[in-house]
Amino acid sequence: MNCCKPLTDTFSTGMCKMSNPNKYRAVTISEYDYSRLQELLLVANQFASPPPSYIRHLETELLRAKIVPPDQIPPYLVTMNTQVKMTDCKTGKQRVYTLVFPQDADLEEGKLSILSDLGVAILGYSVGDTIEWEFPEGTKQIQLDMICFQPEATKHYEL
Question: Could you cite one Gene Ontology molecular function of this protein (predicted)?
Fold first, then answer.
């Protein structure tokens, strides 16, 4: 797992703030990510009957998403191929993940699939957000602490 180190264009917050979890707020997604995620859902729905909960959650997130051009994505937002440091608000455990498409997923390397409960939960949210999300083991609150790398911030719009 890569270590997330503060850089000049890294965004960070402190400890978990339990107030105002962003459970029903519209997420922001780039046009490019939106298009690729729609294609992914088409394929996933062809092979999954009934679709797992994370597919339904991703569909819901995309339906309520604010879609913007990649050059308008703020550098503190989780997009596809973003590396993010997060904290489980209950346990205090911190992890660093890169949000990836399923074919690139490898949890031992810190590569988290978008087709997972946690992957869907963090997409489109910002540093400082506390996300309340239903996981198979129950409701969790995750705080996004720091963006270590985001493609749009480095003008790599098609990663």
Answer: DNA binding
> 6 to each of 50, 119, 128, how far by Cα in Å?
42, 23, 15
SS3 27: coil
Question: pLDDT of 21-49, one tens digit each?
Answer: 445 567 899 999 999 999 999 998 888 76
State both tokens at 82. 């973003």
Q: What domains, with CATH codes, occur in the chain?
A: 22-152 (3.10.50.30)
Structure token pair of residue 121: 């939960």
Name every residue whose Cβ is closer than 8 Å to that of residue 91 and which is 6 or more positions away in sequence. Answer: none
Whole-structure pTM value: 0.83
Q: Give 92-115 pLDDT, tens digit per residue.
A: 999 999 999 999 999 999 999 999
User: Rounded distance, CA 118 to CA 120, Å?
Assistant: 5
Residues in a beta bridge with 130: 143
